Amino acid sequence: MDISMELWRREMTKTMKKIEVAYICDKSYALTTLVSLRSLKKYRAPNIYYLVHMIVAGFEQKKEKDIIHIFQKEAVEHEIDIVIHQIQHEQNDAIFTHRYVSKAALIKFRLPHILENVNRILYLDGDTLIRSGLEDICEADIEQCYAAVVEDMSVSMSEHRRELGLIHYFNSGVMYLNLEKMRTDHVEKMLIQQKKKEEQQLYMDQDAFNVVLGQNVIYLHPRFNLIYDMYRKYTLYEIASFYNISEHSVDELEQSACILHMAGDRKPWKEQESEQLVEWLSYIKSFKEFAVCEKAYYNKQLAFEVQLQKETHERKNEQQNLEKRILDFADQEENKIDKLQEETIAYNKKMQKCIVEWQERTIAYSQELQNRVTELENKLLVYEQDIHEITTGLDKRISFFECSFIGRIWKYFAGKKKDLQ
């Protein structure tokens, strides 16, 4: 046993909240389970300690050893703790087949027994991508019921659900299970019996879980198990009506989903046009992992195709980003031109206003000047009249003075003449 890991495990259980998670992995889903596990690690909250139970089955001895080694390496950085459970398929499992569901799904029936010391477990299918922490889903109160689940819209709206006599139908790819209650009520035995009674093998384990657990479950918001395939089948209005949420919420659900479930036959490791291909490939660190998980030998052609797909999508994203930058630049320049035109129009209006004001002020000043000239001319006429009157008066006074003076002289000389006689 790794002593440092054991010490870290003990310390984490004291200081952090523990969430136990279970995956079931066989040779069909080794790589996809590895991808889901890495997405789980990526979005682990700092105060959360994940104890992951990795149940492996159906591998050849050498291949199983390689797979276990890859999974154990994921716990080296002490971000999570992984416990490997090596089991064999039950003989009865061999009679059940499904075109895109692994027989490992039937191992879910045996979870209460395999994890006999665990009371609560969050089970995740390998074809899931974790988009956020799992704390909220594990807050669900399942003390009095078997599980917390998300309703499966596609099956719930089908005739198959009615044939089973069910009111609701949930997806078994993500389940928060009360293993303690399942052990007490011997649910494992009931699941196996129900599976043997099924005439149609439409769903590997899902029908049995729905029939046996029945209505003794609680239903969660679809963000905790967002089955992307429903976006291909239904409109936003139909999805919103089914889950009783707004169309706006449905539109944003893919980005806000806690767990994205790639259920159905259109999976990113099978379909190059899958919407999740780039995100899914981003969690694969090397071609060797792809070869070890999917083939018994290093398949260069397969690795080349995966790399080509990845590079193609990366170039496509780069091209889209470049186009977006060009459009953003064009929008910015167009906004600048619009702003400049608005400023030019505003400046022209301002100049026109100034010209009008200047013309009005010029006219007013000219009018005022003309009025002052007229006023001065009138005053000048008045002054001229006053001067004329003054001049006339002076002339009269001078004439009077002259006459008076001459008279006095005449009188003076007349007196002298009289005296001389």
Secondary structure elements and pairings:
Elements: H1 3-15, E1 17-25, H2 30-42, E2 48-56, H3 61-73, E3 80-86, H4 111-114, E4 120-124, E5 128-130, E6 147-151, H5 153-156, H6 159-163, E7 170-178, H7 179-184, H8 187-197, H9 206-213, E8 217-219, E9 226-227, H10 230-233, H11 236-243, H12 247-256, E10 259-261, H13 277-281, H14 287-294, H15 300-420
Parallel strand pairs: 1-2, 1-4, 2-3, 6-8, 9-10
Antiparallel strand pairs: 4-7, 5-10, 6-7
Describe this protein's structure.
The structure is a single chain. The chain has 421 residues and is α/β, with parallel strands linked by helices. It has helices at residues 3-15, 30-42, 61-73, 111-114, 153-156, 159-163, 179-184, 187-197, 206-213, 230-233, 236-243, 247-256, 277-281, 287-294, 300-420, and strands at 17-25, 48-56, 80-86, 120-124, 128-130, 147-151, 170-178, 217-219, 226-227, 259-261. The strands form two sheets. The protein has a seven-stranded mixed beta sheet, sandwiched between helices. Strands 5-10-9 form a three-stranded mixed beta sheet. The longest helix is centred in the last third of the chain and has 121 residues, at 300-420. The chain is rod-shaped, with a radius of gyration of 50 Å.
